[in-house]
Every structure is written in structure tokens, then in C-alpha cells.
Design brief:
The complex is a heterotetramer of chains A (about 500), B (about 100), C (about 475) and D (about 500). Chain A has about 500 residues and is mainly α. Chain A has helices spanning about 1-10, 15-30, 40-65, 90-110, 120-135, 140-160, 165-195, 215-235, 240-245, 250-260, 260-275, 280-285, 290-305, 310-330, 335-365, 380, 385-395, 405-420, 420-450, 470-485, 495-505; strands spanning about 70-75, 80-85. In chain A, helix 4 (about 90-110) packs antiparallel against helix 10 (about 250-260) and helix 5 packs antiparallel against helix 6. Chain C has a two-stranded antiparallel ribbon. Chain D has helices spanning about 1-10, 10-25, 35-50, 70-95, 100-120, 125-140, 150-180, 185, 195-205, 215-225, 225-235, 240-245, 255-275, 285-305, 310-340, 345-360, 365-375, 385-415, 415-420, 425-440, 455-470, 480-505; strands at about 55-60, 65-70. Chain D is globular, with a radius of gyration of 24 Å. In chain D, strands 1-2 form a two-stranded antiparallel sheet. Chain D has 22 helices and two strands. Classes of the chains: A mainly alpha (about 500), B mainly alpha (about 100), C mainly alpha (about 475), D mainly alpha (about 500). The interface between A and C is large, with 41 and 42 residues. Chain B: Belongs to the CPA3 antiporters (TC 2.A.63) subunit C family.
Chain lengths: ~500, ~100, ~475, ~500
């Protein structure tokens, strides 16, 4: 096995990150040209690409673990280079996206059966993942910004996919938000680059050697960057697009909320704080506390609004607003434990939220259920889906052994360590209670109330409660979320990996 | 008469040329009708050519500079062909029946 | 073959083609695209020559410099020739099918090749009068091509285009006259060496700027552009927007940085930049309001030219390496726009053919039926907005960079506003690709129409966005002028 | 061969929480009901077989888990497992009416798993996992029937449970952060921030129904099926006591500060429960208030124990009291369930006996527990003896009320006993309950029963007297003689009627 891997890494060489990005990109382009009716060819391509990518990521992971350095450089203009580089943090995100992409692809194939424009959909779907992986592997801010914009482009068609007025409106809103954000980020990056030179991500940050007179500019730049990234990370008040964007098909929502867009914003914030500014230097600048307050406000605000949504996906969307800010919160608290909490939530939130969206999609696709009020008794009709949903929801609340518990635990510990428990703990408590308040009634309806008739039953229960390609993805992701929490202290678990990253971030 | 003869004829020509140029510019800008615009442009051209010819003057004893002359000739050719094209288009515009 | 011959060939090949196409009308199309292809090949060769052997100067017919027609090819000129040749090639391939079964078919090719000739000759012109002649040739052929539209609107636009062109040329000619009167030469290099800061020089500069601003449709002299560019046949629109205005811009660059360098104060540069900024805002806003696709594209050109002018005030204060970078970025931006806009117009032409109109609101079904064309529009849109990867992105990057480095942050605001407006107008268009309108039965589009459009769009985005690094080294072989 | 391996390995320890979990996931409906008692077996065996000090480290689970048995844990495990087993047996045939059997089974097993886990947990992560699993899954047991009352009860229970969990979570984070470890063994001897202690206490205080935090308890007990009430009252609320012992470092300054409060709050709770319990009419609600009152005593003891870490007698007293209350209260609740189904007189009699056990009449576990408590009272807290005396009195009164409420229940439903309940109790219901009652009556004799003292019995007698007074029917003027005459007349009347019936039967 090791020899095989050695041979593989040898053959793929240092350009492995590039191949990983291209594996989905090229297939995405090819899929555009696949005839609408050639279902089998498209499915094969999709799955092949996803599996190949996952395998490549596996090899990369193996290589990184064995201390190999992967770097792809490409100078695009004087003093401006694209850099793909695999470090511990990027591996965390790349692995997450590659894994969830595979699952989501399976799900999407099942979900979009018989709907029009599938080639277009899957083409952009692949591009979207390429962009995500690209920005995960970006080795400097320039590369990051390029993939960040690319991501916006690739997701727009997915949001607009249904083509209804509502979808197009949502897509427009999405664009308006994310492009403005992207532009501000661009401005900030250029500004920073004019002050600090090449913006390669370095663990521990690169800015702390700058003279004191640049500090006020650095603060402004930080603000711009956070606004730019915060739009995608849905920090309040920049979150307006997210609840609207849930009109997109369920696999898209799943991807958007768990892996791609929202996560890209959060990941960017992590990158900027840790590998550009350096968390300790950011603290010196005094920018962490405001960031933390915004995150805290977002957490509470998102949860509160989620309470009032009857539309299931909308409720989940507001939940995302809230949950993603845990990552930001963890980033904004100075101290290794909080860092662990924030970074590990990057993975945990992804696993849990994708489960929830898959399940929501299953309800809609199988029974036509779109609203919480229609969910009475659905647990009996769709037990596995509802079980997955339950696990995801419990995780969101922070109930052990789900992954969310681990995140919250470390956030709490981090807050204690940093001496900010006084305001962080109430936020965590309030959020957990609110999460319970908007998730538990759903579970109650699903498991305890007698079933009414379903709004629109498309898929009859046969051997399984719904189409297999719809059923297994949520089950798998829910299991992963469970395992990530239950075996959090296992080597290579997200938690252990986050601790590894953290150990390197604090010099 | 002394005063008058002291005025360089070259200067006079240049002034006249620039004057024509200005009139032509004014006309091109102001007139709405395209035929008038074309005429104004030709007046402008005449002004420029006049100036060029004046520039070619190198005193009584020297032959005039050939280069501006060549330029003027080229310029006239260009102006004529452009005017012709413009007039053709105007004709076609008159004939066009769509809309 | 003689290296300098490449300079001659890029001009004479299309000219020859134009003559042949006039004679053998039935083979006009073939002659057209073959000569375009050969020209493009020669353009590559020219660039290679310049790159290897440095600046090429050539006095035609053996006349000494100052008397005869002189050609001058440096890095910038070679790059522009390559740009124009590639766009012309793309449009030529496209036009074969586009004009199939149309009456203008035979008229198109000679004029089209003449346009290509004029463009290349203009880029390679070594003296100012030569420039005048090529400018007129360009104006006349472009106007005639516009008139091929044959509809009233097209004719009116062509006429106005012609008049404006003539007016600009006249202003330019007057400036030449003044310069000749003062320095007794028309050679750009010689004038640059002799130029004094005096009222005459100022007058000449302002006249030239005014004339060329009119020709490149710089705000507020842009009024003629939208009707002209939006009413011409698709390949013509493409060339007009991508190349013809770019020719005027090229001249401004040449004059500004090489000939009139001592006169170009930062104040003047800022004034020019301000016009550019207004062009950006006004052009983008108008594009956003445009009802028709081609009109949108035309207004977008106004805005994009504004960006190009916005480089001037920053170039005026930067020095050294950073200035070279910025200059390269400006050229890159111009290239990016040329390819993107030509791709956009070609794609618009396809839509227009199949939908019978180009009203944005009603394009939904057609865009869905023509995915590749829509994809081209999307790619072109990326380059127009300045999203990565595209040459425009890099251009904007350096523009921003320079604005921060020089502390002229107000350009940042313009750029942000302009980009947002651009996003809005591009996606207002693309949004219709996702509408629910009944999809038109999927038509079969000739590959020769879609492929060139796609190629140009890819060139503008991925080509220039990721592979433009050599541009700066090409431009290192650029001219005599002030520190370029 | 296998046996030593099984014992040597902490196999049983793993099996104890995991077996119910597996059953919850896999069991089918045909043999499903028998899984309920079986699931608790490993825990029971473990409690008997495994030596104190057995532990197993699972460093890759959660935050690094460790499961094991210490002395306290062993007692708790024994108490817990036995009650779960018997309640499970009871439930095999005693499905609550109108509920989904499948759902009941799953939640029953999940709750069991959580309960066992939290007992053997020696790290905060596992404890919290067990605590949360038990707390949330119990919701499914409480809200079985789809009636408005149970839904409301379930909702209230859930809200308080989640609140408690969140507070405990905060406290646990605080504690773990302060001591730098998640293992309870590291807590011992450390000093904690006061805030951590308070958060933990509040979080667990909801479970042990501290006055003010007790709202959910009577409501949930009132609505839950008997077996569930038995488990809730018997063992689940005890998790709070165990949690306090686990989380708070005994003897530390901040703990002592809170522990004093716990003593007083416990005392208040002991009376609070009685005062409000006395105004209830439903038997199960009265029992629930009794639980609150008893939990008050337990809290008081815990408070004392936390102040004196080395006091073995106190610890012993606490454990005895836990065991006593758990089993007897479990038996009472199960008995009430059977009584409601049968309305039989002899059942009422047994319930009275059980009530007497709870009160602590001599030769019962109550006497054992109370005696050891009294003996263990530290010197500084001798004045609490008075409080305990009063508490005994109060308990007696409450139990009187309980018996009265059963009486009343029978009278209200008596005429239509057969119509009232659709099912008569199944065999396993009887079996489970009978074993429990046997056990309740028998186990105190394993220990040295306290010496009989009139002082100990006096509150009981006083209480019984007061109950008797209260329960006596209206006494007519002329009191005893008239009463005697009246009774004689009633007796004669009854005999006549009986003969009348008999005769009619014969004549048919």
C-alpha cells in the first residue's frame, strides 16, 4: 500500500494540488457538452470525477502527512503569482469538500432525475467544487481572491437554476451581495499588497513586522476584508442573500451551506486572521474583539430568526447564518482552544448542515413537504431520513455525541482561556437554547404527531422510504457527523487535525 | 503701407487658414443637416490645406517645401473620397424606406 | 526572409486580399479568411522578430526618414498588430457563415480587409502624417462597413460615424500642420526629440487630443458610438468596438508618452482621468439601462475606454518598475477588452440571427436554446466586469495597486462603482438565460460562428488572465519615449 | 474459559451502556419487548461482579473518555440497573395505552443507555453524553400519549431539561477549563471558580428539583406512564445527585460555599414538596411531590457531604438513602399503575406498606436510611436533626394524603372498575412489581438496622395520628358511642344485603 502511494505521489509530483482542482474543473467543462438525454454518461462522469478527486485528495493527505511539500506556482503578471499549496488547514477543507462533493453528487443525481438542464447543472456543480477546492488550496491571498470570485460565478447559475422568478431574483440578490463583497475584498487585498508585498499564507501571520504607522491602514483593510468575506460567511448584516438563496435545489443548498459558499467565507476569515494577520498581531491591532462581537450577534440573531420560519429550508438557512459564525467566533477569540473550536466547526457544521439539507430535500422530493407545519408524523413514513435529520439537529444544538458538541466545548474552553467567557458563554447558551427551540419542535412533529396526508407524494415507499440515491447521502453524512463527535479524539479526526493546525498557528 | 507690407504674407495665409478651420468646425458642430455638415467639413479641410501651403513657404528665394504640398495633395484625395462616401450614404438614406 | 519584411507583410497581405476580393468576388470569403489567417501568422512572426531583434524601423521605397513613408514596429505596436489580426481573423471566420446568402456579402470583404490594412498600418505608422492617412482610411472603411447594415438607422449611424471621424481627423491634421510648422518634420521620434514647451506645442497637443478623444469616444464625445456600433453587422460591430476605438487610443498613448511627454503634466493627466472616470460611470449606467443587447455592448465600450484613460493620471506619477507594470496592465486591459468585446458582439450576432431581435427582456428562450453562445457571453461578461481570470482583472488589479501606491484613492471608488455597474449589466443579461420562457427549438448554429466567438472569449479570460506574463517582456522592447 | 476474560476485561462495563443502545437500534417488534429487561442485565451484573476500581480508558471517544466503577458508582449502578430491569420487566406487558410500542421501546432503551452511561462515566464528556441522552430520550417516554396534557407535560419537561443541560454544559466547560482536564479524578482536591460551581449546581439542580427549579417534576410525573414515573423518580433524578458528587471538588472553598446553600435549599425543598404535595389529589402527583421532598433530603445530604470529603459515614448515609428512595419510590409508582388497573384492595394494602417503608417505620429501609443519616450528621450540623424530624413528620402526612388519594381514586372509579381500564395487568407487570416489593422489604436486613428509638418513631406516630384524624369520616355528635352504634348498624345492613344478594343468586 505504501509503495503504491509512493509511486502515485511520485507520478503526480508536486502538481498534485493542480490536478485536484482540475479534476473537477475539466469534467465540469466536459459535462456542459453532454447531451441532456445521456443520463448514464453524465452520471458516470460525475461520479468518476468525484471519486478521482477524493482519491487524489487521499494521496495528497498521505503526502502532506509524510512531510512532502506540494506547491504549484504560476506567475500571471509581474509581482503577481498564483500559488497552490497544501498545508494542514487547506487539507482540512479540501478533504471536507472532496468528501461531501462525492456524497452530494450522488444525492444530486437522485434529486434531479428527470428535471431539465441537467448538463448545465452538473457542469456548474463541478465548477463550483473546483472553485472551492481551489480556494482551499490557495497559497496566497491573490489566488484566494481569484478562486473566491470564481466561486461566485460558478454558484450563480446553480442558485438561478430553477429559472422561476423567485429563483432568478434570489440569484440576483446573491450576486449583488457576493460581488460587492468580492470587490471589497479585492480592494482590500490590493491595498494590503501595496503595503506588505506578496501575501503568501504563513502560519502565524506575515504582518507583525510592519511599522506602526501602517497599523491604522491595516485596521481599515481588515474591516474591508471582513466585510468582503463576511458576505459569503453571512455575518449579520451581510446575510440577506442566504435565506433567499434557499430557493435553489436541495443539493445546491446543501453544497452552498455546508461546503462551498458560506464555508468559503468562513474559511477566508480563518485564513486572513491566522495566516495573514496572525491572530496575535490581530489582537494587538484590536480587531478581534469587534469581529467576535459581530459573530456573537450573528449567532444569536440567526437563531432567533430561525425560530419564526415555517419554511423548513428557510429555517435551516437562518440556522446556517448562526452556525457559521461559530467558526468566526472561534477565530476571533485569542487562544489555541478557541482556534481549535472554530476550525473544527468548519468541518462539523458542514457535516451536520449538509445532512439537514439533504433530509429537507428528501421530504420535499418524496412527499412534497416544504414547511415545518407539514411534517407531522413524517418520522414514521421516512424513518432513516428523519433519523439523519434528528442527528443533525441534535448536533446543531450541541448535544453529545454529535460533532457540534465538540465544537462548542472547545469554543467554551477557548473563551475561558481568553478570559472572555463572560460574554461568550451567554452567547453559546442562548444559541443552544434557541437551536433547541427551533429544532426540537420539528423533531416532535416528525416523531410524535400522527401523520396527516402528504402534500404531494412523488416517490412511493418501496423497499426503502425513498429513492436510494436520496436516502443514503443523508444517512452517510449523519453517520459521519456522529463519528466525528463520538470519536473526536481519534487520530486523523477533524478535532485532532484542528489541534495540529492550531499548534502551528501559535508560534 | 509700410505697416501692411511688414505683415508676413505667410502669417496672413496661416491666419486665414485657421479662420476657415474655425468656421468649418463651428459649422460642423452646429448644423443638423448632414449635407451642411459635409460642406462645413470641407471648409475645415480647406482651412487646414491653406495653412499647410502657407507653412510650405520658405521665403522668396527658396523653393517651397515639397512635403506640405504632398500632404495637401494626399489630404485632398482623402477629403474627396470621404465626401463622396458621405454623399452616397446620404443618398441611400434618402432612398431607404424601412421604419 | 528579411526580418523587417514581417512589418510590410502584415500591412500588405490584407491589402492584397482586399484587392483580390474586389476582383474575384465569388471567392471573396475565402480570400478574406485566408488572408486574415496569413496576416495573423505574420503578426506572430512580427512579434517574434521584435522580441528577438528589437525595434524594427523601415523606410518604404527607400525614401529617407522624414520624406517617405516610415514604418516603425516596437513591442507595443507588434502587440497591437497581433491583437487586431487575431480579432480580424476571428471575425473573418465568423463572417463567412454570417453573410452567407446576404447581398452585402461581396461588399463586405474588400472593405473588411481594407479595415484590417488600415489598422495594422496605423499601429505601425512611424510618422504623424502617415497616421493621418491611416486614420482616414480606417474611418472611411469603418463607416462604409457600418452602412452595410442597410437599414435607415444603420445608414444614419454610418453617416454620423463618418462625419465624426472626419472631424476628428481634421483636428488631428491641424495639429500636424502646427507641429510641422514648428519643427519641420513629421517623424514621431524627431518631433519628440525637438519638442518645446510652448503655446504651439500645447495647441498641437490639445487639438490632437480632442480629435482622438472624439474618435475613441471619450466621454463626453461618445455620443456617436452607441448607434454606430449597435447597428452594424455583427463582425463589423465587433471590429469597431474592439479595434477601431482602440486604434485612436493607441495613438493617444503614443503621442502622450512619446511625442508630447514634456507637456503631459499630472494636472492634464488628471483631467483626462476624470473624463475617463465619468465615462466609466456614465457608460456603465447607460449599459445597465440599455434595452438591447448590442446597445448594451456599445455602451460598455464607452465605459471600458474610460478605464483605459484612467491609467494616465497614475502613470503620470509612478516611476520605475511599478510604472512599467502599470503600463503593461493598461495594454493588457486594452487587449482583454478587444477580445472580450469582439466575442460579445459575435455572440450577440448569433442571438440576433436566431431570435430576430436583441431585446434583452425577451432573450430568455433563445439563450437557453443556444448554451454555447450564452457561455461566450458569460465569458465575455467576466472580462468586461474584470473578474478573474481575465486580462481586465489584472488590469484593474494594477490600477487599484497604483491608486493605493500613489495615494489617489478616488480612482478606487470609481473602479468599485464601475465594476458593480458592470456586474449588474452583465448579469441582467445572463439572468435571462435561466428564465422560464418557452425554449425555442434548439437551432443548429454553425460551428464557424460559435467557435471563433468562443476562442476570442477564452483568449480574453483564461488566455490573458493566466498567460499574459510574457506581455510585459514584449513591451520591454517598446519605443524611444519617456521611460517606456 | 471465556468467563475470566469477560470479567477481566471491562467488557461488562462497555456492554452495560452499549447493549441497550444496540437494542434500541436493532430490535424488531416480535421479541422487542423482552429486550427491555434484558438490556439492563449487563449493568446489573457489572454492579455485582466488577470490583470497585475497574475502569476502562477510551481515549479516542469524545474528549477522551474513561468509564469505570468507584464505590459511589457501584451503588448507583446497582440501584439504577435493578430498577431499570424490573421496570423493564413491568413494561414488557404493561404498554401504556394509546402509545406507539415501537417508539416506547426505542426511547426506553436510549434512556436506559444514557442513565447507565452517566453512572459509569468518569469523565465529563461521557457524563454529559449520558446525561443528555437520558434527559432527551426520557421525553419520548413522558410524551407517549398524544393528549394535550402529556404534550404539555412533555414540553415543559423538555424545556427544563434542555435548560439544565445547557447550564451543565457551561459549568462543565468552566470546570474543565479551570482544572485543565475532563476527568473527574482530576477534580478531586482542586479549587474551582465560584461561577463554575454555581453553573454546575444550577444545571444539575433542575434534575434534583431544587425549589424554584422543580416545576417540571410534578407535571412530568403526573403525565408519564407508571413505569416511566418510577424510573424518573427512582433513578433519573438521582443523576443530579451523582453529578454534584462528580463535578464538585468536595472541600474546596467554592464548593463549600455552594454546599451550604445546598443544605438549606434541600431543607426548604423537603418541606416545599410536602406543602404543595398536600394540596394535590392525583396519587402520582403526590408521589412526585414526595420525590421532590425526598430529593430535598438528598440534596441536603449531598451538601453536607461536599463540605466534608472524608466523612465515610455521611457518604454511606447518602448512598443508603439513594437506594432506599429509588427502590421504594419505584415500587410505589409501579404499584399505583397496577392499582389503577385493578383497583383491588389488597394492592392498596401493599401500597400502604410501601408508604410506611418510605416514611421509615422500623425494620424497613426507610428506618435504615434515616437512622444512618441521623448517625452521620456532622457535629456542626446537629441542629438539622430537628429538621429531619420535622421532615419525617411531613413525609408521613404526605403519605397519608397519598393513601387517601388512592382511596378517593377507587371511590371515583370504583363502580366502573372494569370499564375504566381496557386491559388487566399482564404477568410481567405483576412479576416485576412483586420482585421489587420483595426486594424493598428485604434488602435492609442485609445491613445492621438501627436500634429502635422512640424519638425516631415519634414523628411517624404523630403523623399517623394526624392522618388518622384527617382521614376519619365525619364524626357525629356524641362521638364514640354513636360511632360504634353507627358502625354496628352499617355492618348489620351490609350483612343483610349480602344475604339478600346471595339468596337471589340461589333462587336463580
Amino acid at each position: 500500500m505504501n509503495e503504491l502511494l509512493n509511486v502515485l505521489t511520485e507520478a503526480l509530483g508536486k502538481n498534485l494540488p493542480l490536478w485536484i482542482v482540475l479534476s473537477s474543473f475539466s469534467v465540469g467543462l466536459v459535462i456542459f457538452f453532454v447531451q441532456e438525454s445521456s443520463h448514464r454518461l453524465r452520471t458516470t462522469l460525475n461520479l468518476l470525477a468525484a471519486v478521482v478527486k477524493l482519491a487524489l485528495v487521499g494521496v495528497l493527505l498521505w503526502g502532506v502527512y509524510h512531510g512532502q511539500v506540494y506547491e504549484v506556482r504560476w506567475v500571471i503578471a509581474p509581482n503577481l503569482e498564483l500559488l497552490l499549496h497544501a498545508d494542514a488547514l487547506s487539507m482540512l477543507f479540501v478533504t471536507l469538500s472532496a468528501l461531501l462533493w462525492l456524497v452530494t453528487t450522488v444525492y444530486a443525481i437522485g434529486y434531479l432525475e428527470h428535471s431539465p438542464h441537467r448538463s448545465r447543472f452538473f457542469g456548474f456543480f463541478s465548477l463550483c467544487v473546483s472553485a472551492t477546492v481551489g480556494l482551499a488550496l490557495a497559497g496566497n491571498l491573490v489566488t484566494f481572491v481569484m478562486f473566491y470570485e470564481f466561486l461566485t460565478l460558478a454558484t450563480y447559475p446553480l442558485v438561478a437554476h430553477k429559472g422561476s422568478d423567485e429563483a432568478r431574483k434570489a440569484a440576483r440578490l446573491y450576486l449583488a451581495y457576493t460581488f460587492t463583497g468580492g470587490l471589497l475584498l479585492l480592494v482590500a487585498v490590493v491595498w494590503l499588497k501595496s503595503i506588505a508585498g506578496p501575501l503568501t499564507f504563513v502560519q502565524g501571520g506575515i504582518l507583525d513586522t510592519l511599522p506602526a504607522e501602517t497599523h491604522s491602514a491595516l485596521r481599515w483593510i481588515f474591516l474591508l476584508m471582513i466585510v468582503g468575506l463576511g458576505v459569503k460567511a453571512a455575518l449579520v448584516p451581510l446575510h440577506g442573500w442566504l435565506p433567499k438563496a434557499m430557493v435553489a435545489p436541495a443539493p445546491v443548498s446543501a453544497l452552498l451551506h455546508a461546503v462551498a459558499v458560506v464555508k468559503a467565507g468562513a474559511f477566508g476569515i480563518v485564513r486572513v486572521v491566522y495566516d495573514v494577520y496572525g491572530v496575535e498581531f490581530a489582537d494587538v491591532l484590536g480587531v478581534l474583539v469587534p469581529l467576535g462581537i459581530v459573530a456573537a450577534f450573528t449567532i444569536v440573531y440567526g437563531s432567533t430568526l430561525a425560530l419564526f420560519q415555517d419554511e423548513l429550508k428557510k429555517r435551516l438557512a437562518y440556522s446556517t447564518v448562526s452556525q457559521v459564525s461559530y467558526i468566526v467566533l472561534g477565530t476571533a477569540i485569542l487562544g489555541p482552544l478557541a482556534t481549535v473550536g472554530g476550525i473544527v466547526h468548519l468541518v462539523h457544521q458542514g457535516l451536520m448542515k449538509i445532512t439537514l439539507f439533504f433530509a429537507a430535500g428528501n421530504y420535499a422530493e418524496t412527499l412534497g413537504i416544504h414547511r415545518v407545519s407539514q411534517m407531522n408524523g413524517v418520522g414514521k413514513r421516512m424513518p432513516l431520513t428523519t433519523l439523519a435529520f434528528t442527528l443533525g439537529a441534535l448536533g446543531m444544538i450541541g448535544i453529545p455525541p454529535m460533532a457540534g458538541f465538540i465544537s462548542k466545548w472547545y469554543l467554551g474552553l477557548g473563551a475561558l482561556e481568553a478570559g472572555v467567557l463572560l460574554w461568550v458563554m451567554p452567547v453559546l447558551i442562548a444559541s443552544s437554547l434557541l437551536n433547541a427551540a427551533y429544532f426540537l419542535p420539528i423533531l416532535y412533529r416528525a416523531w410524535f404527531l400522527p401523520a396527516d396526508s402528504w402534500p404531494d407524494e412523488h416517490i412511493q415507499a418501496q423497499r426503502w422510504e425513498t429513492h436510494g440515491m436520496l436516502l443514503w447521502p443523508p444517512v452517510i453524512t449523519a453517520s459521519l457527523a456522529l463519528l466525528a463527535g463520538l470519536f473526536a479524539s481519534l487520530p486523523f479526526s477533524p478535532l485532532e487535525w484542528a489541534q495540529l493546525i492550531t499548534a502551528r498557528e501559535y508560534k | 503701407m509700410v505697416g501692411l507690407s511688414a505683415i508676413n504674407p505667410q502669417f496672413l495665409y496661416v491666419c486665414a487658414g485657421i479662420f476657415l478651420f474655425a468656421i468649418g468646425l463651428w459649422g460642423t458642430w452646429l448644423h443638423a443637416h448632414y449635407v451642411r455638415k459635409i460642406i462645413s467639413l470641407n471648409v475645415m479641410g480647406a482651412g487646414v490645406f491653406l495653412t499647410l501651403i502657407a507653412v510650405a513657404y520658405r521665403g522668396e528665394h527658396l523653393p517651397p517645401d515639397p512635403v506640405p504640398h504632398a500632404l495637401v495633395l494626399t489630404g485632398i484625395v482623402v477629403a474627396v473620397s470621404a465626401t463622396a462616401l458621405a454623399l452616397v450614404i446620404i443618398r441611400r438614406l434618402e432612398d431607404a424606406t424601412d421604419e | 526572409m528579411n526580418e523587417a519584411a514581417s512589418v510590410v507583410w502584415v500591412i500588405s497581405l490584407p491589402l492584397l486580399g482586399a484587392l483580390l476580393a474586389t476582383v474575384w468576388r465569388q471567392y471573396a470569403a475565402t480570400i478574406g479568411w485566408v488572408s486574415s489567417a496569413l496576416t495573423a501568422g505574420c503578426a506572430v512572426w512580427l512579434l517574434w522578430v521584435v522580441q528577438r531583434a528589437g525595434v524594427q524601423e523601415l523606410a518604404l521605397g527607400g525614401w529617407e526618414i522624414g520624406l517617405g513613408i516610415s514604418l516603425y514596429a516596437d513591442g507595443l505596436a507588434a502587440v497591437m498588430v497581433l491583437m487586431s489580426s487575431l480579432v480580424v481573423l476571428g471575425c473573418s471566420v465568423y463572417a463567412r457563415h454570417y453573410f452567407r446568402a446576404q447581398r452585402q456579402h461581396e461588399l463586405f470583404w474588400p472593405l473588411w480587409l481594407l479595415l484590417a490594412t488600415a489598422l495594422n498600418a496605423l499601429f505601425l505608422a512611424g510618422d504623424l502624417f502617415n497616421v493621418y492617412v491611416t486614420l482616414e482610411l480606417l474611418g472611411i472603411s469603418a463607416s462604409a462597413l457600418t452602412a452595410l447594415g442597410a437599414k435607415r438607422a444603420a445608414l444614419r449611424a454610418a453617416l454620423r460615424y463618418l462625419v465624426v471621424g472626419l472631424l476628428g481627423s481634421m483636428l488631428y491634421l491641424m495639429a500636424i500642420t502646427l507641429l510641422y510648422a514648428a519643427y519641420g518634420t513629421l517623424n514621431a521620434v524627431q518631433i519628440a526629440e525637438a519638442l518645446q514647451v510652448d503655446p504651439l506645442g500645447w495647441a498641437a497637443l490639445l487639438l490632437m487630443l480632442a480629435g482622438l478623444a472624439l474618435k475613441m469616444a471619450l466621454f463626453p464625445l461618445h455620443f456617436w458610438l452607441p448607434p454606430a456600433h449597435s447597428n452594424a453587422p455583427a463582425p463589423v460591430s465587433a471590429a469597431l468596438s474592439a479595434l477601431v476605438v482602440k486604434a485612436a487610443f493607441y495613438l493617444v498613448v503614443r503621442l502622450w508618452f512619446e511625442v508630447f511627454a514634456p507637456l503631459t503634466t499630472p494636472l492634464l493627466a488628471n483631467a483626462l482621468g476624470a473624463l475617463g472616470a465619468m465615462a466609466v460611470l456614465w457608460g456603465s449606467w447607460s449599459a445597465l439601462r440599455a434595452e438591447r443587447l448590442k446597445l448594451l455592448a456599445a455602451y460598455s465600450s464607452v465605459a471600458q475606454l474610460g478605464y483605459l484613460v484612467m491609467f494616465f493620471p497614475l502613470l503620470a506619477v509612478l516611476e520605475g518598475e511599478a510604472r512599467q507594470w502599470l503600463f503593461g496592465a493598461m495594454v493588457l486591459f486594452a487587449l482583454s477588452h478587444a477580445f472580450a468585446k469582439s466575442a460579445l458582439f459575435l455572440a450577440a450576432g448569433i442571438l440576433l440571427q436566431y431570435a430576430g431581435h436583441d431585446r434583452i427582456r425577451e432573450l430568455s428562450g433563445t439563450t437557453q436554446a443556444l448554451p454555447l453562445t450564452t457561455f461566450v457571453i458569460a465569458l465575455a461578461g467576466i472580462a468586461l466586469v474584470g473578474l478573474p481570470p481575465s486580462g481586465a482583472f489584472l488590469g484593474k488589479w494594477y490600477l487599484l495597486d497604483a491608486a493605493f501606491k500613489t495615494g489617489q484613492w478616488w480612482w478606487v471608488l470609481v473602479l468599485v462603482a464601475g465594476s458593480l455597474l458592470a456586474t449588474a449589466y452583465v448579469f441582467r443579461l445572463l439572468g435571462h438565460a435561466f428564465g422560464h420562457l418557452p425554449a425555442v427549438k434548439r437551432p443548429v448554429v454553425a460551428a464557424t460562428q460559435e467557435i471563433p466567438a468562443l476562442a476570442l472569449a477564452l483568449l480574453a479570460t483564461f488566455g490573458l488572465g493566466l498567460g499574459a506574463m510574457s506581455l510585459w517582456s514584449w513591451l520591454a522592447h517598446t519605443g524611444t519615449g519617456a521611460g517606456l | 474459559m471465556l468467563q475470566p476474560v469477560l470479567l477481566e476485561l471491562p467488557f461488562l462495563l462497555l456492554l452495560a451502556p452499549l447493549l441497550p443502545l444496540c437494542f434500541a437500534l436493532v430490535g424488531n417488534d416480535r421479541i422487542g419487548q423482552w429486550l427491555l429487561p434484558v438490556a439492563a442485565l449487563p449493568a446489573l451484573v457489572a454492579a455485582f461482579v466488577l470490583p470497585v476500581g475497574t475502569s476502562v480508558a477510551l481515549p479516542w471517544v469524545l474528549l477522551g473518555a474513561q468509564w469505570g466503577l468507584d464505590a459511589t458508582g457501584q451503588v448507583f449502578l446497582l440501584v439504577t440497573a435493578l430498577l431499570w430491569l424490573l421496570a423493564g420487566l413491568y413494561s414488557v406487558s404493561g404498554t401504556p395505552a394509546g402509545a406507539s410500542w415501537w417508539r416506547f421501546r426505542v426511547f426506553f432503551l436510549l434512556t436506559l443507555s444514557g442513565n447507565v452511561l452517566l453512572v459509569i462515566a468518569q469523565d465529563m464528556g461521557s457524563f454529559f453524553l449520558g446525561f443528555a441522552l437520558m434527559g432527551l430520550a426520557a421525553y419520548g417516554l413522558i410524551a407517549q400519549q398524544a393528549s394535550v396534557t402529556t404534550r404539555r407535560a412533555g414540553r415543559i419537561y423538555l424545556i427544563w431539561t434542555v435548560l439544565g443541560e445547557v447550564l451543565l454544559f457551561a459549568g462543565a466547560v468552566f470546570t474543565a477549563g479551570a482544572i485543565g482536564s475532563v476527568y473527574f479524578s482530576e477534580v478531586v482536591g482542586k479549587e474551582l471558580p465560584l461561577a463554575a460551581v454555581i453553573l454546575v449546581t444550577l444545571g444539575l439542580g433542575i434534575k434534583v428539583a431544587l425549589p424554584g427549579l422543580h416545576v417540571w417534576l410534578p407535571i412530568a410525573h403526573g403525565a408519564a406512564p407508571p413505569a416511566v414515573s418510577a424510573l424518573l423518580s427512582g433513578v433519573m433524578v438521582k443523576a443530579g445527585i451523582l453529578g454534584l458528587l462528580r463535578f464538585l471538588p468536595a472541600g474546596a472553598a467554592s464548593t463549600v460555599w455552594v454546599a451550604e446553600w445546598l443544605v438549606w435549599l434541600g431543607l426548604v425543598g423537603a418541606f416545599y414538596g410536602v406543602v404543595f404535595g398536600l394540596r394535590q389529589t392525583a396519587p402520582k402527583v403526590i408521589l412526585a411531590y414526595s420525590t421532590m421532598s425526598q430529593l430535598g433530603v438528598l440534596t441536603l445530604l449531598t451538601g453536607l457531604g461536599l463540605q466534608a470529603p472524608a466523612d465515610a459515614a455521611l457518604a454511606m448515609a447518602l448512598l443508603l438513602y439513594v437506594a432506599h428512595h429509588a427502590w421504594v419510590k419505584g415500587a410505589l409508582f409501579l404499584g399505583v399503575g397496577l392499582f389503577k388497573q385493578t383497583l383491588s384492595w389488597w394492592l392498596l394494602g401493599v401500597l400502604v406498606v410501601l408508604a410506611l417503608v418510605l416514611i421509615g417505620v422500623p425494620l424497613t429501609s426507610g428506618a435504615l436510611a434515616k437512622g444512618s443519616v441521623k448517625a452521620a450528621l456532622p457535629a456542626a450540623w446537629q441542629h438539622l436533626a430537628l429538621g429531619l424530624w420535622l421532615s419525617s413528620l411531613a413525609t408521613t402526612l404526605l403519605m397519608g394524603r397519598f393513601v387517601w388519594s388512592l382511596w378517593r381514586y377507587r371511590r371515583q372509579h370504583g363502580g366502573a372498575a372494569s370499564h375504566h381500564t381496557s386491559t388487566s395487568p399482564g404477568l410481567t407487570q405483576w412479576l416485576g412489581w412483586a420482585i421489587l416489593v420483595e426486594w424493598v422489604l428485604w434488602w435492609p436486613f442485609l445491613f445492621a438496622l438501627p436500634v429502635f428509638k422512640w424519638w425516631d418513631v415519634s414523628p411517624i406516630l404523630l403523623g399517623l395520628g394526624m392522618v388518622a384524624l384527617a382521614l376519619l369520616p365525619r364524626i357525629p355528635a356524641g362521638d364514640v358511642p354513636v360511632l360504634v352504634a353507627h358502625t354496628g348498624y352499617r355492618g348489620w345492613h351490609w350483612v343483610r344485603q349480602w344475604r339478600h344478594k346471595h339468596r337471589r343468586f340461589l333462587s336463580n
